[in-house]
Amino acid sequence: MGTSFGRGGATTFQQDLAEADCILIQGSNMAEAHPVGFQWVMEAKHRGARIIHVDPRFTRTSALADQHVPLRAGSDIAFLGGLINHVLTQDAYFAEYVLHYTNAAMIVGADFADTEDLDGLFSGFDPETGSYDTASWQYEGGFAEPTLGRRGTDSQAGKRHARERETSGPERAGSGGPVYHGHARTDPTLQHPRCVFQLLKRHYARYTPEMVEQVCGVPAEEFLRVARTLVANSGRERTTAMAYAVGWTHHTVGVQYIRAASILQLLLGNIGRPGGGILALRGHASIQGSTDIPTLYNLLPGYLPMPHAHTHADLDAYVSEDEQASGYWGNIRSYLISLLKAWWGEHATADNDYCFDRLPRLDGDHSTFRTVVGQIEGTVKGYFVIGENPAVGTANARQQRMGLANLDWLVVRDLNLVETATFWQDGPEIATGEMRAEDIGTEVFFLPAAAHTEKDGSFTNTQRLLQWHHKAVEPRDDQRSDLWFYYHLGRVLREKLRGSDRPRDRSLRELTWDYPTHGAIDEPSADAVLAEINGSGGEGVPLSAYTQLRPDGSTSCGCWIYCGVRAEGVNQAARRTPGREQTRVAPEWGWAWPANRRLLYNRASADPDGNPWSDRKAYVWWDAERGEWTGHDIPDFDRHKRPDHVPAPGATGPEGIAGTDPFVMQTDGRGWLYVPSGLVDGPFPAHYEPQESPVPNRLHPHQQRNPAREVRSRPENRYQPSGDERGSAVYPYVFTTFRITEQHTAGGMSRWLAHLSELAPAMFLEVSPELAAERGLDHVGWATVITARSAIEGRVLVTSRIRPLQLDGRTIHQIGIPWHWGPNGLTTGDAANELINVALDPNVHIMETKAGTCDIRPGRRPRGPDLRLLVEQYRRRAGITELTGAEYLDHPARTGEEER
């Protein structure tokens, strides 16, 4: 969504779903995985909205929807592409919105070639590095900065390292689209053959209802029913909302799933309008916060990109691209310098570039999956695991345990003794004989953590809303909060370095590490941390908005998008004004970034002249008498910028945004149907099969998988053949993972609770009656699922909720596998992540857990060494080698073979 609209967060808020005329939920079982937010879906239904659920399984969400559409896991782009094609061919798009608020009219350069021209590839693909040069994707008359890391590909380092240098590329633009310069040629008639609108029509022309049926297994009439419902509930008078979760993101084309939804919502005019938008549902309370502040290796707080070793020698080099562009990213110098001041205070001055040189530099991929390879190869010696459980909760759990077993030390902080803390004594490899406890040298430190009820702090939920929670009880014994742990760890380290005169130690010694503490255990003040994040100006006065940040070092702010959460020195996140005492937007319940704005891009809720598209869907509009934007929410726009404002020639930053440009974080102020730069696997979403699929790619027969995906074939991470490849029949069934309400993520918080263990007492495998008959599976009996990584067992749940699909005359069976179990706790079972390979989306390095292939057979899995023998037998039958699933395009630098 960042490349499409300008920010990487949900465009809408959950309560606004009640205003929708239609809600499409896809890639999520919202009723079960997000039950609190689902109340607003039910409110919309009560008001007459149509609810559509597209999902491989019939779930609690499906039971409450007006239409459930089962489809094959991993085929969503074909389905969404079919919807896009329907909207375009039926002239059902919101024409005025598309013309004025998207990049539909922009003309792409003559060198661009589409997947329809190159049989599944876009122009610029380099098979040696498995990556794209985006130069041919640019607009005619404009030039986008190349993806970071692409520069210097032909340098002395050579193409062998191009992939590593490119890994941070998409984050160059922070949470928004990349910078481009010049003035793109446009065709307001949308007839030029190379304008974005015509390229879009051509790209999706083959995504017909018949093709959707052949690829997704959705009957054409069922598909058309969805398409007609969306069209009927979009436009001036009506709006449709979309909601997704990890059912979309956990794919090798996960980013392009969301891009396809973004294109559809832009065409229908549903972004920035009440009852519209796209809601990115987060798995639990502060997942959004963990990307805002963040816990990601390639971002700084507020989606500022991490500096890159090859291009960012100083602060000026870091900010230069954004400062030359229009939109609010043009103020990046203010955001960054204020962050540096928050971290190093008086030590950050203009004379030392505000300590910019102290920031880490990216020199490649440092994601969790590269880290575990480093552990196995001996280059990563120590590991902190905080609130995670990779021994069962991460894709290819066996690979994770192999990494853990090769560490010098491991720190685990959790509520319970999770599998990551005990792998060395009772992990599956101990039982199979692959590891012996006495041979594992990892020193494990288990530190009990305080639960959320035992600490103060904030959650940032799925709609960018910060909500403060107060401590209910004191933590017992030696349980400690995460804030206590990190603060005192930093305090001890700083104390040890007090007398050091080494330049490298100054970055730690001079940190602003002076938070007040209280109580018997010296608990740091969470409110003081929030105050630092909010930021302050002269004499420590709290700031009220990120527009107050300055590039001269006079302001400090720990996260610019959170600036204002402590406006006037008041914790705005702690507000709890009852709904009956305020408007439906509820601006006094918590605080939403940015600027307590609940609906992003809401300038688009009005027409180019500033008038609401309709009285029924009025939200924000121009008040000519008062000379300002007003409405039901805080305008996501310069409040006093007139609708007819035309920027001065050469204007940059916010001043470069016209009065008709709602997407204020984008260089051109438009929503992007086409991405000229900023993504590494294509300017349009194209259907590719998952890394492992039972069928060939019907749309692009010579390009089975995403050619730019990240693959790392290793002995413990072998891939399976797919489609028509030799040996694919060994793993004939599709499986997808899912979650249930009664358990929580990898089970670390729930499998130790008696009442939840009683509600969901056993690991199970959900299959259709037809598959049960085909493979001889008995309801509540045992079955074993096998992939090239491992085999697991579970109780069989035979149900018609998951039904066979017909694809071009072939029956495809799917298996649902919950991912909450592991060997520790009150309810135990095999972990679904034992089955899953590590193949990644190239933009965000996220794993594909939602679509894989397997075999299933009755009975329990083998024990001891026989388990590995079973897996090896299947590998031999399928003819699996280190090249399987890597294709001819996959260079050794991408697979990891060269390093070994």
Automatic annotation (TrEMBL):
GO molecular function annotations of the record: 4 iron, 4 sulfur cluster binding; electron transfer activity; molybdenum ion binding; molybdopterin cofactor binding; oxidoreductase activity
GO process terms (BP): anaerobic respiration
Cofactor(s), by name: [4Fe-4S] cluster
Alphabetical UniProt keywords: 4Fe-4S, Iron, Iron-sulfur, Metal-binding, Oxidoreductase
Tree of life domain: Bacteria
InterPro entries: Asp_de-COase-like_dom_sf, Formate_DH_Act, MoPterin_dinucl-bd_dom, Mopterin_OxRdtase
Residues in Molybdopterin dinucleotide-binding domain copies: 734-849
Family per record: Belongs to the prokaryotic molybdopterin-containing oxidoreductase family.
Official protein name in the record: Molybdopterin-dependent oxidoreductase
Species: Saccharopolyspora montiporae
Origin organism lineage: Bacteria, Bacillati, Actinomycetota, Actinomycetes, Pseudonocardiales
